[in-house]
Every structure is written in C-alpha cells, then in structure tokens.
Amino acid sequence: MTVGLKQKILAAVQDDLQRIERELAGNLNPHFDLVSRVAGHILFAGGKRLRPLLMVLCARLCGYSGDRDARFATIFEYLHAATLLHDDLVDGSEMRRGKTVANQVWDNPTAVLTGDFLLARGLSIAADTGLCEVIETIAGITENMSQGEIRQLEKKGDITLTEEEYLEVIRCKTAVLFQGACRTGALVAGAEPIRVTALNDYGHHLGLAFQMADDLLDYTQDLATMGKHAGADLREGKLTLPLIHALSRSSDADRERMLAVLKNPDFGADEFEGLVDCLEKYGGIAYTREQAAAHIQAAKAVLRPFDNHPTRKLLMDIADYALVRKA
Amino acid sequence: MTVGLKQKILAAVQDDLQRIERELAGNLNPHFDLVSRVAGHILFAGGKRLRPLLMVLCARLCGYSGDRDARFATIFEYLHAATLLHDDLVDGSEMRRGKTVANQVWDNPTAVLTGDFLLARGLSIAADTGLCEVIETIAGITENMSQGEIRQLEKKGDITLTEEEYLEVIRCKTAVLFQGACRTGALVAGAEPIRVTALNDYGHHLGLAFQMADDLLDYTQDLATMGKHAGADLREGKLTLPLIHALSRSSDADRERMLAVLKNPDFGADEFEGLVDCLEKYGGIAYTREQAAAHIQAAKAVLRPFDNHPTRKLLMDIADYALVRKA
C-alpha cells in the first residue's frame, strides 16, 4: 500500500518535479564551477523535492495560473540544502543521502560558504517575487531555522530534554520551512488570508509529523534505505521523541541502560538493539507514531474547507505518505 | 592631522553611535544565552560601526526624520559580523580585533550557526522596513558577499591573480555592504532615484578604498594596532593589490623571492621585511595608495550635488579618514 501511494503521488507530480529540477539547475547558472559542484553535490543527490513541491501544489490549490511557481519553489530547496551543508559540519556526520558529506569531499570552509551562497540565492529569488509578505516569511524561516539548530546544538547530550523542548526544536528546524513553503504558495497565488493561514497550518503539522517520522526511522531503518547509519542521532547525542518518551517512564535500571548507550558514541549493534527494545517496551516508538499520526490528521483537517480539487487530494495523499514512508 | 580628523568625526557622530550600540544589543534580546554570548564576542569587540553609521548618515542627508534609522542600521553590522564569524573559520585565523576568534573560543559549529543567526536577524529587520527595494538590496548583498568569499577561497595561493580579479573580489566582499548601507539610508528616507544611485556610488567607492587601505595595513601595521599579525593575508595565501602590482613588474629574481615567502606560511620577520622591501621597490604600496585615493576622490565627487549640509561634510570627512586610518 505504501509503494502504491508513493507511485500514485509520483505519477501525479511528475511534470512539476521536472519543472522544479530544471529551475534548480538553471538558477545556479552562471556561477563559479566550485559553487555549482558543491551545491550540486547536495542538491542533486536524490532529494525528494518535497518542500518546493508543496509550494507549487499550494499555489495551484489557490488558483495560481502563472509560470513562475517552479522558480519561486526553488527557494525552499536552496534553504533546505544550505541548512544541510551547515548541519553536516555541525553534526560531524559522514554520510548524507548515501554520499560522503560535502565538508569531507571538500572542506569546512567550502561547505560553509556554499551554504551561505545557497541561502543568499534563495533570498534573492524571494526578493524577485516582489511580495513583501513572501520575503518576511523567508526571513522568518531563516531566523527560526538557525535558532532551532543552535538550540539543538546546545541541548546535545542533555538527558533532561523535555517533549516540549523537543517540539520547539523540530518546529524551528523543520516545520517552519514546510509551513513557509505552503504559505508562500498561497501568497504567490494571491489567496485570501484565511487560505494563507490554513495552508500555513497544513505545512506546520505536516512538518512536525515529517520530522517525527524521520526521528523514528533513525531507530528502525538501516544504511541501505536511509543513506546513513541507523542510530546516527543517538550517536550525536540528539534525544528525539522515542527516547524522551521512553526515558520518562522507564524503570531505573532500564533508564541507566539507555543512558549508557547515549553516553557512548561508539556503541555497538547489540547495545543499539537493547536500546530499541527499551523504546518498544516503554512505548516510545508507538507514542511517536501516534503523535505523528495526530499531526497528519490535523494537517488533513485544515484542507477540508478547500474545494474538492485533485490538488487537495494530492496534498492529503502526501500527508498520508509522510507517515508511512520508509526513506 | 589623522588623529584630529578621527576625533572630529567621533565627536560629530557620538549620539548616533550610542543609538546604534543600544539597538545592536536590544535586537539580540531576548535570545538564547549562547547566541548572545557568541554574537556579543564579535559584535562588542570594538568594531567601528562604520557600516551602520553610513546608513544613518545617508538617511539624514536625504532628510530622514523618523526614529527607526538606528534599528535598520543594525542590519549592516549583523551582516558584517556574520561574515566575520564565517570568514575566521574559512581563513583559519586566530585573532580578530585583538581577541581569540569565536570558532576557537567555542567551536566551528557554534560559530557557523551564530553567523547564520546574525544573517537571519539582519534579514528580519530588513523585512521590517516594509520596503521591497531595501530587502532586494540586502538579498543582493548576501549573494555578492558569499560569492566574493568563495572566489577568494578558490583563488588562495593563485599567483596569477590579476588586478581585475582582485577588484571583483573586494567589490563583492566589502564594497557591496558599504554601498548597500548607503543605498538603504537613501531608500528609508524616501529619496529620489538619482540620490539613491549617488549614495550607492559613494558607498561603492568608499568600500573599495576602505578595503585597499585594509590590505595596505596588512603590510604596514603591527599586532598592537590591528589586533592581528601583520602579514596575515600573505600567510593565508591571499594576494592583495600591493603584491599583485609588485609581481607584475618585478625582476625574475625578486619575483622568485616574493613567491617563496608567499608559498611558505611559516615565513619569519626577515623574510616578511624582504617582501615588503620588494613591494616598495616596485611601487606596490604607492600604487595601492593611489588607487585608494582615486576611489576616495570619486566617492567625494558624487556627494557634491547634495546640499551643503553638515552631514555631507561628515561623509566627506569619513571618506578622507578611510584613507589615512591606522587601524
């Protein structure tokens, strides 16, 4: 059923994805060779293009009929790629989308400056919309995202992280970009404020659910599917909802067992499996799935007042898919 | 005479500098402790506040009478500080304004994310102006600056760097921020296009001259005055105008002598002095001074059509000071 849903969505958005790919490459030219190569390393490594796609679809749902949607949509992929370039350096990751991270293929300076360039490119395209509200949205996204990343960095290894603090981190680092993409789609279509707010909320809930699903995958997927090692968050000292929830209700002995793994970045497969067992035992996996599902329900609920348009159905399918995706 | 000019300027802008300081601190609150500390490390380390001051003065010259100028002016100090945080990492510098660089006091991730945050903060304040032209200006600045930094990184150690390529690097990395600050001052004052362009040009020429003077100081100043070691650019493999000019007209023997120093980042004081002798011998120092002086003349020339206002005189004094400053 998951494969069926994915195929159905991909078939429906095939043309949009092609237009987005063309703009992603086109907007980078003509630029220096080095920038194109480093940006291309992260941009053309099999990303799903979910964020630009959301902008294009939300614009369409609000009646957009121009031909600049794919161009404007690249803003959200550039911002996303910029964040990934800086994050990989911050996290000390080695793999991203099955490839060696840019700051190891090249070096930290090149990764930092290319990230800066992609962010700047996104802002310039935002300025091209000529819509102050869009620009305010993008400025707000960049501010929130950097705050979220800093907060996450500060909280690394902090075993007292609460569910509320976790939610604030994922809102800043993930949901604001989703909601900004959806909001911008509505804005470029000249939608009335109530629709702008609705699509903003759709993106917010979808983004939270998407990040929760991502955090779950870190405990349930292997290298082949994710393009990075399972347990990567844990190895970096990042507490996510499955663990936060399990820690909040575990026995003292199991708590110590989980914290011992968290505190040892060189944990082995056995120790990792033992921790995942604890997450299952205390409902950390199930609770995170439930919370993600609740946000997907909320995302779909705000779409109901929109006309029964094929694009509305597609946005609902995307929401469902965010929950069941395997990569 | 230099000291006299500096004192005269400082006396005239004392109130403006105080307003700018208040806004620089105020706009960072309420933010996380870590951000405030890292941002404060670079922001409150004795910077001259030249960029925000230029915005305030250009706004005044164009008749601005509101009370938001100092707030908007912080954009240019935040952008500047963001660039410095990333640059120090890129350059592997150890000292900045007489202090250990942020990425060594903290670490690379913290410096990168705080830089991102300051850039984002600047954009949010730009969005607050509600003026699309200002936002376009800021977006253009960030794009140009990151391009300039990348180009400089690519060209490190490239002994074939031409004067034209050098000019393009310093335009992107320095002059666009100066011209953006001056342009924004005119825009927030609602100045007519001809004045916006004139002040844009003033900032452009001032920025080029300022960077040339800075590049000269790298060969003529010591640690005590600059807060960093003389020869720092050279040690990083950065060719600047004094050396580019000297290389273009030196004997083969002297060329080899200069290149030997450039290729050895561990050069000693004697070798550095030998290289400076070559720069003098082939007119590299004098030529750079002449070029900087020509840009200062050009900067002052575009101010002439403005009314004979004390602020016009002040902007002319600032231009003169850029050329003779010792730090």
TrEMBL record, chains A, B:
The keyword Transferase is annotated on this UniProt entry: yes
| Single GO MF descriptor | metal ion binding
Cofactor(s) annotated in UniProt: Mg(2+)
Which Pfam families does this chain map to?
polyprenyl_synt (PF00348)
Could you tell me the keywords of this UniProt record?
A: Magnesium, Metal-binding, Transferase
GO BP: any one term: isoprenoid biosynthetic process
Give the matching SUPFAM superfamilies: Terpenoid synthases (SSF48576)
Signal peptide start and end residues: none
What family does the database annotate? Belongs to the FPP/GGPP synthase family.
Q: What is this protein called?
A: Octaprenyl diphosphate synthase
Recorded source organism is Desulfosarcina widdelii
Q: Which gene encodes it?
A: ispB
